[in-house]
Amino acid sequence: MALLRQFIAFGTDNAGIERSLRFVQALVSLLATYRFSQVAALLSLTSTKFPPSTSFLDLRAKINVTRRLLRLFRFLEQFQLGWDLYSSKVLDFETLLDVLGKTCLGLYGMLESVTLLDLLEVDQLEIFGAEQTANLNHQAQVFWLIALCISLFRTGVALLRCLGKQAAAPYGSSNRDSQEKSSSEKNEHQKEDGSASGTPGANQQKGSGDQVAPKGGATISKEAVPSLMLKLVADTMDVLLPATAIGLFEVHPAVIALAMIISTAITANDVWARCGKEMRGR
């Protein structure tokens, strides 16, 4: 029952719907680009005909327009996030990168939104025309690529920092162990000389506190590393989409579809977890 409720929460959430449609769009793209020769041969033995690639391409275009409708005013949120970063924090290099990334995402969404009416292909309601619409969508892909590259750089830096903290934790623990050992030997030597009276309660309390601190830090790093690695994979997969759209390099359409499926599954899992957390918090 809890799983069903979480599925309902995911299916009625705006981000969950958008991720679901993106996953379907990726599957449709795979069907449109990959030759399912064996499946088509089996279907040809019956009265059912396998749809041509053009049908899948038309369906993909319809799903893409639907997703754009769901993201119609999303660019305003990105502009707001960028402005909040610009106005509320010290403008160091990393903050400026975040501001630039949010601004590029906002420009990407804005260009997608202003060309939406042209993509609907309603007679006498076009704004820019087919050629200018294609040009604006090309520029939108450029801004998306810049935002993804910034996200890749920021995620990579954060991942290296977490891995560095994990590598430093055992070294710090060994130093503390050696310090505690030398301190213990010193106390024992003092006890034998009769120059100090033992305070085992204080020593045990101090020792237990030193042991808890590195464990807590290591736990936080271990939890952050898988999340950062998944984000790195998702951004890397997504980079293929705008990079091929603007002609930086050529990749087989089936590879693009598979990359889209992988990145959608990773990002949709975050939305799924958030919906479950919100459901349990009610």
From TrEMBL:
The keyword Transmembrane applies. It comes from Trichoderma asperellum (strain ATCC 204424 / CBS 433.97 / NBRC 101777). This is Peroxisomal biogenesis factor 11. GO terms for biological process: peroxisome fission. Residues 169-217 are annotated as: Disordered. The chain crosses the membrane at residues 255-273. It is found in: Peroxisome membrane. Residues 196-208 have a biased composition (Polar residues). Pfam families: PEX11. Residues 177-194 have a biased composition (Basic and acidic residues). Keywords: Membrane, Peroxisome, Peroxisome biogenesis, Transmembrane, Transmembrane helix. It comes from the Eukaryota. InterPro entries: PEX11. GO terms for cellular component: peroxisomal membrane.
